C-alpha cells in the first residue's frame, strides 16, 4: 500500500486494461500511481504540480497526441522528469526518435513486468543520486565557447548570432561534455550518464549525435576543434582549443 510520501508515477496509456494492470503491480511495490488516457490529460496533471510526479511511463501510440509530442512538450517546458517510453514499435529509428525528444528509457511491448519494474527503480535511483551529487563543473545560466552561446535554462542556442534549436537529448549531451571539459569520456560513460541505457544504444548512435554537435558548433566539422575524438577511447570537449586541431 502506497503512503502519502511514496514516489508518484504517472502512467500515460490509452489501453485501460494494461494501465490498470501496471498500476496494480506498482502500487503493490509501494508507489503512488495516477493514470492518464491521453497526452493533454497527462500534461495537465504534470502542469498542476510539476514536482509531484517523479516518473512518467509514456505510451507512444496515444489518441490525438503521440507520446513523442508529449515528451517533447515536457522537455521544451524545462521539465526533466524521467520518462520511460513504451511502444510496440521495434525499429531502431523509433527508439532513436524517442531519445531525440527526451525519453530516458525505451521498452518494447509486450514487456516483462519485472523488466519494467527494474527500469523504473533504476531511473528513480539515478535521479536521486544526481540530485545528491553536484556536477563536476558548475554552470551558470549561460556558457560560451567559440562563436556559440548556450543558455541551459531556456534552451536558447546561438552560433554566430544565429538561433539553433537542439533536441533535449542533444542539450543533455552538450551539457555533459561542458561539465566534464578536458576529460576523456568513453562511449560507455555517455551511454550510462546521458542516455541512462547502459548498452541499449549502439555506439553508432552516439557517433551520430557527436556529428550533429560538430555541425552545430564547429567552423569545420571535418576538422573539429571543440568536440575531439580520442582514438579507441571516446571523446573530449575543449572550449578554448589550440590553433590547429589534433589528428584524430
Overview of this protein structure:
The chain is about 40% helix and about 20% strand. Strand 3, helix 3 and strand 4 form a beta-alpha-beta unit. It folds into two domains: about 120 residues, Response regulator (Rossmann fold, 3-Layer(aba) Sandwich); about 100 residues, Winged helix-like DNA-binding domain superfamily/Winged helix DNA-binding domain (Arc Repressor Mutant, subunit A, Orthogonal Bundle), CATH 1.10.10. The radius of gyration is 19 Å and the shape is elongated. With about 250 residues, it is α/β, with parallel strands linked by helices. The strands form three sheets. The protein has a five-stranded parallel sheet, sandwiched between helices. It has a four-stranded antiparallel sheet with strand order 6-7-8-9, with no helix packed on it.
- Sketch the major β-sheet: 5 strands, parallel
> Quick one: CATH superfamily of the largest domain?
Response regulator
Rg computed from alpha carbons, rounded to a whole number of angstroms: 19 Å
Based on DSSP secondary structure assignment, what is the total number of beta strands? 12
How many helices in DSSP terms?
Answer: 8
- Structural class from helices and strands? alpha/beta
Q: Strand sequence of the main sheet, in spatial order?
A: 2-1-3-4-5
Spans where pLDDT lies below 50 across 5 or more residues:
134-138
How would you sum up the global shape? elongated
* CATH architecture annotation of the largest domain: 3-Layer(aba) Sandwich
CATH fold name of the largest domain: Rossmann fold
Domain unit count: 2
Amino acid at each position: 500500500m502506497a503512503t502519502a510520501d511514496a514516489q508518484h508515477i504517472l502512467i500515460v496509456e490509452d489501453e485501460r486494461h494494461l494501465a490498470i494492470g501496471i498500476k496494480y503491480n506498482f502500487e503493490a511495490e509501494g508507489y503512488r500511481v495516477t493514470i492518464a488516457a491521453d497526452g493533454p490529460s497527462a500534461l495537465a496533471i504534470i502542469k498542476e504540480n510539476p514536482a509531484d510526479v517523479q516518473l512518467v511511463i509514456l505510451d507512444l501510440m496515444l489518441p490525438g497526441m503521440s507520446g513523442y509530442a508529449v515528451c517533447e512538450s515536457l522537455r521544451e517546458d524545462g521539465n526533466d522528469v524521467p520518462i520511460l517510453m513504451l511502444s510496440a514499435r521495434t525499429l531502431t529509428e523509433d527508439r532513436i526518435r524517442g531519445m531525440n525528444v527526451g525519453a530516458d528509457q525505451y521498452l518494447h511491448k509486450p514487456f516483462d513486468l519485472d523488466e519494467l519494474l527494474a527500469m523504473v527503480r533504476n531511473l528513480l535511483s539515478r535521479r536521486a543520486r544526481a540530485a545528491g551529487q553536484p556536477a563536476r563543473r558548475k554552470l551558470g545560466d549561460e556558457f560560451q565557447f567559440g562563436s556559440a552561446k548556450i543558455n541551459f535554462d531556456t534552451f536558447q542556442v546561438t552560433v554566430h548570432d544565429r538561433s539553433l534549436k537542439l533536441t533535449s537529448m542533444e542539450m543533455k549531451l552538450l551539457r555533459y561534455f561542458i561539465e566534464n571539459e578536458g576529460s576523456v569520456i568513453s562511449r560507455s560513460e555517455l551511454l550510462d550518464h546521458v542516455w541512462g541505457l547502459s548498452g541499449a544504444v549502439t555506439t553508432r548512435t552516439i557517433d551520430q549525435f557527436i556529428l550533429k554537435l560538430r555541425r552545430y558548433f564547429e567552423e569545420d566539422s571535418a576538422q573539429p576543434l571543440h568536440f575531439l575524438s580520442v582514438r579507441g577511447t571516446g571523446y573530449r570537449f575543449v572550449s578554448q582549443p589550440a590553433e590547429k586541431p589534433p589528428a584524430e
